[in-house]
């Protein structure tokens, strides 16, 4: 085979010799190794990102599951505990029905019966507390509708208005939730309480 470029410069072929020789620019081919390295680095970064997201999702799932299990263990007995409170209330009513004078003058048989009821009540409350149910008595505390239910007002100028002065029925908590609010009587400050408070404030301001 003959090279056509040789004919272009062949003096014996004047037609070919008159045409100028144009050289084609040389284009560097892409380095396959460089492209592969960049692609691998990108794939590795994407895989690492996916792995981190998956790990974060798994950790969130683990925490959520642990929290749900703990809540189920703590609050799963809510209905049962609320029913048991009726028994505790009945035991308390039985004790309240016996006047203090009768207890003091009771014969040994009656005293044993009263002590047995008291022991049963304490045992029941201890069992509830072991399962996360605690009794609370808000006497003397500021009335909080989140934990107490006001049944009536008691005129009493000796304490600030809105103070729990009587507890009709004790309240119970289960974990951090209210199982049953306490039924209470709340103080209502008398006419003498407001001027006294106003005088205190004016004196402190002076």
Automatic annotation (TrEMBL):
Keywords: Chaperone, Coiled coil, Cytoplasm, Stress response
A Pfam match: GrpE
CDD domains: GrpE
Coiled-coil stretches: 37-68
Region (Disordered): 1-37
Subcellular location: Cytoplasm
The protein's name in its UniProt record: Protein GrpE
Species in which this protein is naturally found: Bradyrhizobium aeschynomenes
